[in-house]
Amino acid sequence: QxxxxxxxxxxxxxxxSLRLSCAxxxxxxxxxxxxxxxxxxxxxRELVAGITSGGSTNYxxxxxxRFTISRDNAKNTAYLxxxxxxxxxxxxxxxNAAITQRGVxxxxxxxxxxxxxxx
Length: 119
Description:
This protein has strands at about 5, 10-15, 20-25, 30-40, 45-50, 55-60, 65-70, 75-80, 90-100, 105-110, 115-119. By secondary structure, it is mostly beta strands. Strands 2, 4, 5, 6, 9, 10 and 11 form a seven-stranded mixed sheet that branches. Strands 1-3-8-7 form a four-stranded antiparallel sheet, with no helix packed on it. The radius of gyration is 14 Å and the shape is elongated. About 30% of the residues are buried.
């Protein structure tokens, strides 16, 4: 059984920073791409940032220059450093990972962590 556990969400004022973590656990052979998504009330879930196993990254235009995704492969953990936060960044943030287990690759989701940015 594979689990993704997110942490680091909370309430912050506009202009502030938060760092999200996503730790994968279980019988894992390999983790390929990892990513962070978010879903605001009444809106569809959207990709915020992604990172490959080799470290290549991509970002939504709305967060470029403010958010940084990284990963520690030895710890099976991904991070999202969020700086210069805006009220429109308020959402539930979900971690996503493509994980190979017993020769089969599947996509897993975390339970989500709430990020609230006050104006």
